[in-house]
Structure formats: structure tokens, C-alpha cells
Write a structure and sequence with these properties.
270 residues, alpha/beta, Rossmann fold, five-stranded parallel β-sheet, five-stranded mixed β-sheet, 11 helices, 10 strands, 21% strand, uroporphyrinogen-III synthase activity, 4pyrrol_synth_uPrphyn_synth, porphyrin biosynthesis, UROS/Hem4
């Protein structure tokens, strides 16, 4: 049997954590999860008021599981008005899509195959077959990047962004980090978000910990850019935030680098 290689995963705990652990173990990786972020909800009454008027919107866009959770909290155990099911609803990634299905009375969302806000915006622009008179409702965080918003605006769409949760560094981050870094055979560190990069970087900097001895894995291009902005070398980048894509680049990082090179060449040509 192959020696298990340890990968520290900087990812908030969710219903997908067990799936990640099981699949990584199956491929001879030893995952250690470090919750890096904490979330606080706000403006839920404001969000609830908007949710009661689906006729004012083209649909709703979920960019993370927390956005779905915010809607659930805003509804206060009441059901989502049924008219939302008739609209154009979207979600980034399968986890967010599945959460909307399970927690919002089988609310179906399009775009689950997209892994980033940018790719979801492109998907909406390419496939939307309705009118653009009404805005999309966009629950978001205080750290939300404007990528999706800007791209949709450029294409003539309207977006009603509602800040419904705050993202902060976990109060227990130092404790979890110290425990994780004491493990043996640490080879990889996988980062799942730009905010997660910022929180962990502050810890490494404060404790004079060099990352040169680890292979840094970015989940998505925005996370890769966040690492590179800290002058950190990225070993490989997963296309989407799924355990399958993570395992794929851990096993075959060269494919990730070739894909990024092609994308860079296309961007330069454009």
C-alpha cells in the first residue's frame, strides 16, 4: 500500500467534509481539516422582505452555501414563496445547488457545473432566455467580489445585491493550525478561498512559518491569485471546489499547469 501523504485543507466545515475525507483516504491522502473562517448573518429581515416578492425578480443567485443558509434563516422556518420555483435561479457548484434543493423545498438552480462566480456569470449570459427588465436577487457576503455583478451588468442584466453575512477569521484558527502543523508527512496545503488565504497567511507571518517546504494547492483561480499576491508559489490549481477536482490535481498537477498556461495564452490573445 502507498504511504499516505498528508494534506492540510483550509476549509470551513460543511456537509461535504465527510465526503472529502472519505475520498481522499481512498486515494491514499491523509486530510487534516482546519476551519479558517467563521460567519455571522445580518440584514435577514431585509432579505426576508425581498423574498416575499418573487414577482419583482428574474430569479435568485446563490454564490455559496452560506447564501442558501441566510435565506433559510431569513424565512424563520417558513417556506420560500412558491413563485420562486418558476424563475431563473442559479448556484455556483454542486454543494450550493444541493443545499438549495434540500433546504428550500426543492428549489432547482441552474449552473451547478460552474465552480466560480465568473464562470456562473458567463453561463447566465450565454443561456438566459428571459427578459432583462427585472433584477436578480443576490444574497452575498461582506467580502463578495464584484466579478459576477460587473459581468452581468456589462451584459445588460440588473442585480439587487443584499449583504447577508460577514466572513471573519475563525477565533480558534491558531489552535487548529498548531495542531495541524504538528502532524507528520505534511506535503500539501489546499486553500479554498481568498479570505482563507488571508487568514492563514497572517498566522504564518506572525509565527515566522515558511511555506517553502509545502506544495500549495489553490481551489479556483481567485484563490490562486490571492496566493500569488502574497508572493507564494502555487503548485497546482483545481478548476472547481469539489473533492474530485482536488484529487485530480493532487495526482496529476502537471495537467493543471498545462491548462493554466493555455488559459493565459488565450487571455493574452484576446
Amino acid at each position: 500500500m502507498s504511504r499516505q501523504r498528508t494534506v492540510i485543507i483550509f476549509k470551513s466545515e460543511s456537509e461535504s467534509t465527510d465526503v472529502y475525507a472519505e475520498e481522499l483516504h481512498r486515494h491514499y491522502f491523509n486530510p487534516i481539516f482546519v476551519p479558517t473562517l467563521s460567519f455571522g448573518f445580518k440584514n435577514l429581515d431585509k432579505l426576508n422582505a425581498k423574498l416575499q416578492h418573487p414577482d419583482d425578480y428574474s430569479g435568485i443567485i446563490f454564490t455559496s452555501p452560506r447564501c442558501v443558509e441566510a435565506v433559510c434563516k431569513a424565512l424563520k422556518n417558513n417556506e420560500l414563496p412558491g413563485a420562486w420555483k418558476m424563475l431563473h435561479n442559479y448556484a455556483v457548484g454542486e454543494v450550493t445547488h444541493n443545499l438549495a434543493m434540500s433546504d428550500l423545498q426543492q428549489l432547482f438552480t441552474h449552473g451547478k457545473q460552474t465552480g466560480t462566480a465568473r464562470s456562473l456569470a458567463e453561463f447566465i449570459i450565454e443561456t438566459f432566455d428571459g427578459g432583462k427588465d427585472l433584477p436578480f436577487l443576490l444574497p452575498c457576503s461582506n467580502l463578495a467580489q464584484d466579478t459576477l455583478n460587473l459581468k452581468l451588468h456589462e451584459a445588460g442584466f440588473r442585480v439587487d445585491a443584499c449583504e447577508v453575512y460577514e466572513t471573519k477569521c475563525s477565533a480558534d484558527l491558531a489552535e487548529h493550525m498548531a495542531r495541524a502543523l504538528s502532524s507528520e508527512n505534511i506535503e500539501y496545503m489546499a486553500f479554498f478561498s481568498p479570505s482563507g488565504v488571508n487568514c492563514t497567511y497572517e498566522y504564518f507571518k506572525a509565527n515566522n512559518i515558511s511555506l517553502d517546504n509545502y506544495r500549495l494547492v489553490a481551489i479556483g483561480p481567485s484563490t490562486r491569485r490571492a496566493l500569488e499576491s502574497k508572493n507564494l508559489k502555487v503548485h497546482c490549481t483545481a478548476e472547481r471546489p469539489t473533492v474530485e477536482h482536488l484529487i485530480k490535481v493532487l495526482i496529476n498537477p502537471e495537467e493543471s499547469r498545462e491548462r493554466l498556461l493555455k488559459e493565459s495564452q488565450v487571455a493574452l490573445e484576446e
